[in-house]
Amino acid sequence: MYISVAIGLVAVLALGGAGYFSIQNTSSQNAITKINQELLQRKDEKSALETELAVLKSSDLGKEVEILQLKLQTAERDFAAKEKEFAFVVQEKLGLASQLQTARANSSKIRARLDAIDAIDRMVGAGPNAGSVAAADSKISVIQETGITEAWAIAKRDIDFVKMSWNGNTIADAVIVITRSIRNLLP
Q1: Is the pTM of this model over 0.85?
Q2: How far apart are CA 79 and CA 89, in angstroms?
Q3: Which residue range is the domain that position 93 belongs to?
Q4: Could you report the per-residue pLDDT of 9-21, keeping only the tens digit for each?
Q5: Are the beta carbons of 42 and 78 closer than 8 angstroms?
Q6: How many structural domains compose the chain?
Q7: Are the C-beta atoms of residues 174 and 154 closer than 8 Å to each other?
């Protein structure tokens, strides 16, 4: 029963983590779109100011030229600041995308570990027999993690098919090693 609760808890945590990263990715995408629009607007403003400045220089209106030069410098500073902000948002999005990709990759590893715990739980629930132990062996071999394989090997040594008994401590130890492995895969 505790194993089933642990499986459920781990599954909820894994789904919550994946949902969190998905929401963060969407938020970053919206921020990038907004900043791109602002950057395009600033470029257009800069071009208009440059054109206006060229006209004023040719018409010999010195004061207006100076004002427009100041406006142009301000627009260029604003543009540079927005470019930096955009670069930061892009880096943040790349980081979130990487985290999301890792979470997706780890979800299949977590699934394999949950399948192994489920097979062990079924074996304990029905009593050990060659079929249930083989099913657990099959699920554990998919994981290919030395610590888990070793903990399971110790637990298997304590199984007595004739008496249909096992050592609960070594079975629990194997499940604990698998659970810790799951925890290490979570973000």
Answers
A1: no
A2: 15
A3: 2-185
A4: 666 666 666 666 6
A5: yes
A6: 1
A7: yes
